[in-house]
Amino acid sequence: MTDPIKEFFADIERSRPHLPEKYAGTMRFDLTVDHVLEHWVLIFDSGDVQVARDSREADSVIRARRDVFARILTGEQGVYAAVWRNLLSIEGDISLLATLRELLPTARGAGRTAARTPEG
Predict the structure, then answer these.
(1) Cα separation of 101 and 81, whole Å?
(2) Are 22 and 37 within 8 A, CB to CB?
(3) Which CATH number is 23's domain given?
(4) Is residue 56 pLDDT above 90, yes or no?
């Protein structure tokens, strides 16, 4: 079985998507499973995106259980609905959540609209 989280970050590293330059800053993901915490960091700089694996300070910190974030990545759960349902929390620069949404596979043309539904 594939890991949608590792695939998501590997795809970003591989494809180096270019975003509008208005997105700048760092976003750390604190994902938990069985009391184990893993960190992923996205660095947005002049439209470029880089991935790191550390616990550095970040402009925005997203916290969620690993399975919840995996459901967001597969389109089973909307990112904004996860926030409203308290399944995902965000601290710091909340505007970077829009950046994350643009990077989601469903928003990058995977042929699905789950990330764009009214609840998501």
Answers:
(1) 12
(2) no
(3) 3.30.1050.10
(4) yes
Task: Note whether 93 and 79 are within 8 A (CB).
Answer: no
Alpha-carbon distance of 103 to 109, in angstroms, equals 10
Q: Which domain holds residue 61?
A: 4-116
**pTM of the full predicted structure?**
0.84
Secondary structure letter of residue 5 according to DSSP: H
Number of domains in the chain: 1
The pLDDT value given to residue 109: 52
**Helix boundaries (H) for 1-117:** 4-15, 66-73, 79-84, 96-103
The CA distances from residue 57 to 28, 94, 114, in Å, are 8, 15, 31
